[in-house]
Specification:
mainly beta; Maltoporin, Chain A; five-stranded mixed β-sheet
Length: 703
């Protein structure tokens, strides 16, 4: 952490070497300076050769749900993004499980412990961009996709908005934003609260879930101080706090006896999960053409706490009950810079360091069993597992953007990463991307070697031998350590602009070693990682966009799959027959979906009292994996396909920044009941159905 001390000194000294800032009244110059600094920051970390899908603030406000829509729902509009049922934040990009990186203004925000809540509100962003494909060398660790959120950084006038959104399933969501400037200091604040009765997907096809209340709070703050024409100091941070009831099912039979009681009403089960995430980043940016630099220390604390039914329902229904606490404190520094050698060459380099301390405490209540596996006593045993680990990530990269001819850009480089935690590994990862643009046609192709360490905060110290002779004993008592995933990634595509149309096609192939996957094992609903020795994935994505005046339309179609073979870590999570089959056969990963389609559109209509904005979006999925109905092939079956539509209509009263807006949204317009998970499959915990039709109304006043 010595680097952080050096950075603190640099921040204190920054005004000394900076040129005097413009007068506070000179708002125009401040805006120009801020935009120049934004452009310089973009030059440090361009996504050369990667596939980009960007959604602007105006598009976010028009879609069904408007600014109250979750970030997960926003990202489902992008090509190759598949929805899942592992909580509000779970999506799959190009059939990967997790492996997403989040950045705010170019700075990595360390991932929180996986759960049901999301750390970010889409309303804090001026734009949301998903970057996939063969990423340039500045992107490491989580490489299935990079979600980049940008905040506004020009001079703010005093304004903001306040609103409330609510409707079906007890939904109540007030929110507010505020932004202003004081001289060269700009700031933005956002806060929201959400309460509803569908915090986790319903395990039954009923319209309303049983015991599924959630309460969530998210806050965000951003401040930017322009030190001079070539320097800016900014800071942002936020908090996400959530409480989730775990939904129940009807008629689950008792399997065990607790203190002479062998029946329990499964609808009265009272399991809960609480989640806390706090993060903060400070960034010093220097833009002294031809040199650009951004240095950013960061910190993040995340914690989850799962509590079983206090009346012993878990013990009677399942034979075990876990009270689990997981926490993670991560801090580090990220530095990125660029230097323009000539019109043909721009060098970029950077480094990343993170230290993470994780702790876990699991108190398990179980029953003793006899040699035949039958319950031997109705008095539970209590076993406590305590673990902790400090781990580090180190990374450096160097690359060159070369423009050998008009319209042609070649970006080549490499990064070197080291992980020292549960895994002690390293890798040199070359990257190469080519982009050729002529007229309205853009062609790109690339190769990337990637290195993905397992998420340290999800790996608990496993000592299942101590559970021998109890209802918690697994069939396999030992397991190999989780390893880092290593991948060869190939990608190529072409995009064509035809008047108001943009058409694109992109294809990719991934060859993996130690393919990382996550699954839900046991009562606690935090995901746990494991590896397949080998894996591969491929896919093709088609994209079409049309924008003309007030009308905007989009459609995306993706075809893909991912397979893995031979589970080589955390074997205690699986049965012997399952391991034996997967050892010799490639199987689909549980999150692999054959076809995914997203489409939608909106139109803005001036109607005399303001602007009317009807919008619709449609989502189709061919179905995630489930076990073979014949019971032979793990993940050998497919869930039924589904198609759902959301409709929204917004009406502003008055135009401009002080308008009052009323919106009405219908989610799952045709009330389709469909399974996202059926409870079977490798690492799948419980059946979960998508939400039924819901009606929502929102009111928002800008000032």
């Amino acid at each position: 952490m010595r680097n952080l001390s050096y950075l603190t000194l640099a921040l204190i000294a920054a005004p000394a070497f900076a040129e005097p800032a413009k007068d506070a009244d000179d708002g125009g110059d401040i805006v120009v300076t801020a935009r120049k600094l934004d452009e310089a920051r973009d030059q440090i970390q361009p996504s050369l050769g990667a596939s980009e899908y960007k959604i602007t603030r105006a598009q976010l406000d028009l879609q069904p749900g408007g600014p109250d829509r979750s970030l997960r729902q926003v990202l489902l509009q992008a090509p190759g993004v598949t929805q899942d049922a592992d909580g509000d934040g779970e999506i799959h990009v190009r059939n990967e499980h997790g492996n997403l990186q989040y950045r705010l203004n170019g700075v990595i925000v360390p991932e929180s412990i996986s759960g049901f809540g999301q750390a970010f509100d889409a309303r804090v962003a001026n734009s949301v961009e998903l970057v996939t494909g063969t990423l340039p060398a500045q992107y490491g660790y989580r490489t299935a996709g990079v979600v980049t959120l940008t905040t506004r950084t020009d001079a703010f006038d005093l304004d903001g908005d306040i609103g409330v959104y609510g409707g079906s399933r007890g939904t109540f969501q007030p929110s507010a934003t505020l932004r202003d400037s004081i001289g060269n200091l700009n700031f933005f604040l956002s806060g929201s609260y959400l309460r509803n009765d569908l915090g986790v997907e319903n395990p039954m096809p009923t319209r309303n879930a049983i015991h599924d209340r959630t309460e969530q709070f998210r806050g965000f703050g951003y401040a930017s101080l322009i030190l001079s024409d070539s320097a800016r100091l900014s800071a942002f941070g936020g908090a996400a706090v959530g409480k989730f009831q775990i939904p129940n099912v009807i008629g689950e039979p008792g399997q065990y006896t607790l203190n002479g009681v062998s029946t329990y009403d499964s609808t009265k089960l009272d399991q809960n999960q609480r989640e806390w995430t706090y993060y903060g980043v400070t960034a010093l940016q220097i833009a002294a053409d031809p040199f650009n630099l951004q240095i950013a220390p960061f910190i993040r604390y995340s914690r989850t706490h799962f509590t079983p039914d206090p009346n012993g329902g878990d013990l009677i229904l399942a034979g075990s009950a876990d009270n689990s606490r997981l926490s993670s404190l991560a801090a580090g520094i990220q530095a990125d810079g660029s230097y323009k050698l000539s019109n043909a060459h721009t060098l970029r380099a950077g480094l990343f360091f993170q230290n993470e301390r994780t702790r876990n405490t699991i108190v398990s209540r179980v029953f003793a069993v006899d040699a035949n596996g039958a319950q031997a006593s109705d008095q539970p045993l209590s076993l406590t597992t305590v673990g902790g680990r400090s781990g580090q990530l180190y990374g450096v990269y160097l690359q060159d953007e070369w423009k050998p001819a008009e319209g042609l850009t070649i970006n080549y480089g490499a990064r070197f990463d080291v992980v020292r935690a549960y895994a002690r590994e390293q890798q040199l990862s070359p990257r190469l991307n080519l982009v050729y643009q002529t007229g309205g046609t853009t062609f790109h192709a690339g190769y990337a070697r990637t290195f993905t360490p397992p998420p340290q905060e999800l790996i608990a110290a496993a000592d299942f031998a101590r559970f021998a002779g109890t209802t918690r004993a697994p069939e396999i008592l030992t397991g190999d350590p989780v390893r880092s995933e290593r991948e060869h990634y190939f990608d190529a595509g072409v995009q064509q602009k035809l008047g108001f149309f943009t058409l694109g096609i992109d294809g990719y192939y991934k060859l993996k070693r130690n393919l990382l996957d996550d699954g839900q094992f046991g009562a606690s609903l935090v995901q746990s990682p494991f590896n397949y020795a080998k894996g591969y994935a491929w896919g093709v994505e088609f994209r079409a966009d049309y924008t003309r005046g007030p009308l905007s339309l989009y459609a995306n179609v993706a075809r893909g799959q991912e397979k893995g073979k031979n589970i080589v870590s955390s074997q205690y999570f699986f049965g012997r027959d399952e391991l034996d089959y997967i050892r010799n056969h490639y199987i689909f990963t549980d999150h692999s979906q054959k076809w995914t389609v997203s489409a939608g559109g909106s139109v803005s209509i001036k109607d005399g009292i303001g602007t009317l904005t009807p919008a619709v979006d449609i989502l189709y999925g061919s179905g995630l994996r489930r076990d073979d109905p014949a019971g032979v092939v793990p993940n050998g079956g497919v869930l039924p396909s589904y198609i759902t539509a959301n409709l929204g209509v917004g009406q502003s009263f008055g135009d401009g920044e002080k308008a009052f807006t009323l919106r009405v949204d219908v989610v799952n317009l045709f009330d389709k009941s469909y399974l996202l998970r059926d409870g079977s499959g490798v690492g799948v915990g419980a059946p979960q159905y998508a939400a039924r039709r819901g009606f929502f109304v929102g009111l928002r006043k800008s000032f």
